[in-house]
Fold each of these.
Amino acid sequence: MGLLSTLIIGRQNGFRARIRRRVFGAASAVTQTDDPPPPPAEAALGLSPEAPKNVTPPEGYEVVLHREALMPGGITEIIIAGRAIAVANIGGTFRASASSCTHAAPCPLGEGELEDGIVTCWVHGWQYELATGECLTSPDAPLTTHDVQIVGDAVCVRI
């Protein structure tokens, strides 16, 4: 999708696309059909599983989402403890980092493109390795990363 159309209609999995799907349904003319389906239990309602409430996270961690709420190859932004955190599922391994592009905030990396563990800022094109926080575009501008643990079905992030 070109930059102009991204700015006008939003990213395929971005905030505006989610609003369009909720308002107009999945058949919206601007919704693309290659989105992964939601988990089966909530598929009928178009919802992702809620973060488990019966899980006690490890000391210093917060439960941020259900592990099936984010399919492999997906990335999302979570606000936890007043911070915007980008959480990604890279082939079943969850990674978390600060969600703002270090080039020029505020540009949520949770709406960026994720491929092979590298997230690309949808505004600036800067790239980050989520496992290490390394900025591939400018090595002097790394992302803050957060430890992630899976407890049962809960994705827990150290804050």
Amino acid sequence: MRSFDLAPLYRATVGFDQIADLMDRVFTNDVAQPSYPPYNIEKTGDTAWRISVAVAGFTADELSVELKENALIVAARKAEDETQRSYLHRGIATRAFERRFTLADHVKVTGAAHENGMLHIDLVREVPEALKPRRIAISSAPASDANLVEGEKIN
């Protein structure tokens, strides 16, 4: 894979750091993405999502969900088993993992639940009132104000 240097983009733009970071992250990711553990991302509302991660064999104490900046990190470490088991076939993988999801601005984690071998993480986008679009009322200026300059009459 080709490597692109985005350093000139950083010094030639102001306020577009997130776009440059996103492009840098896309270009530096490995071609072979890990496929363990499998996960689903479903849309549950206009501004709500749910990430479901298959975590068969892990207890809730062995899982961790962490939010750092705009990254959601789901990790698992299997506790050491005191009794050494002898398996004839071992098809359930309980190896440690760390899965990262990059979240968009203003996306918040509202909760996480572990049930039936699945870890469900609920997300919602909460845009602050100051950033929401708002309608500005247009008023027509009275004709008598046309002859005013900074509050003083000119005629």
Amino acid sequence: MPAAPELVHSRLARWATERGAHPAIRSEAGELSFAELAQQVAAHAATLQASGAPATVLQDAELPLAQRLVSFMATIASGRCAAVSDSAWPPTVQQAVRDRLPDTPHDGRDPSPESPFYTGFTSGSTGLPKGFRRHHRSWTESFEVCLRTFGAPAAGRILAPGRDSHSLFLFGMLLGLWTGGGVVVQEQFSASAALAILRSGETPCLVAVPSQLLLMLEWAQHRNLAPVAGVQLILISGARWPRGHTPALQALFPEASIIEFYGASETSFIAWTESHADLPDNLVGKPFDTVELDIRGATADSPDGLIYVRSPMLFMDYVAAGTDHTAALRDGDWVCVRDLGHLDPQGRLRVVGRESRMLVTLAKKLFPEELETVLEAHPAIARASVHGLADAQRGVQVVAIVQWAEPRGDAQHPDLHALQAWCRARLEPFKIPRRLWTPAQWAFTASGKTDHMALARLLPSGAHTPDTSPCLTTVS
């Protein structure tokens, strides 16, 4: 008899039998063993069947995280697609997302590897979350690639201290359930609690975004914490990791391989590299072994082109994407999320930035991500967001929005001239910011990334000029 096809949930019954007492999900609220998880999933799946739930089921974001994972696994075990909402969405957005989901009845058939199991959401240019669908095979392939590339630590218990609405953390959670290692989650991220969990030695793998790691480093440094043993693998994604902090992170977790990986909600894994402080800022590493890359539109004068990806890990389609110009491009088996870059002579991918964020100043292309990386390497800057204001002479005038790091001792924040000197030593002249602005409060997306669009709307210029803007400094 041929083996049953691998589905995202299909190993749960095996672990319930072989590792029934082993913790599957642990959170502040308690613990579920694999046997308990399997029982709850079966019961909830039966309820969905009996109620005639539609083919796509919007998950209840108000449930505790462990119960949301039960609901997710039950939804897909029933052959349906789980749409994962976010409790941070305002009611109007929740309703708009609900209205845009398909209400197709479930056809009663068992799922196959190509059946949709997950609808996630990523921000679009209009601010309304954009739904994307994944089929089972795209994630089971991602699980296998992860284990093949990173080895045994990726098969152990995973700390995934983020929201399930962020596909990076949901992936980490489901990987722990797939391998039988189990997962530890947090209802709300706490650097101190995360460090305590890691120090227990029970979670050899940590999946995190840069902002979480920086908070953990800050907490550890302020309290002179001893190095944490037992952490063997740190997987970083979701945003650019400031590599100047890699030595400190390695000192805190001396046994860990620190891995940065580049991907997208639509593509899963694309490329990866071990993190080192001396790596070029735009280098994201070598492609995973099932990933093919094609750089399109590059010229001799402009070697960076659109990065197209082909792999078994790609998404299916968007849900009611409309005319969103930030949506991915498709060409047969190839997908492009509109990132621009090139392959270097060693076959490593270098990503210069997102097409939609590119600025043209003095008739030259400027990718904000490059300047943001340089600014965030300054010890006084915690975060940076780069934008352009209309300028008749230059095309756009480059504006740096920054959030200051916590000052040490009597140190004062640098002024615009000092930051320009810092940038001038590292970048071409046309990339130097002409204006500096420090907002009263930094803007984040629901997944914890810098919300560049929200910050752009707050810039004190034109129609968005506030009554007073003492933080805006200009040099002509």
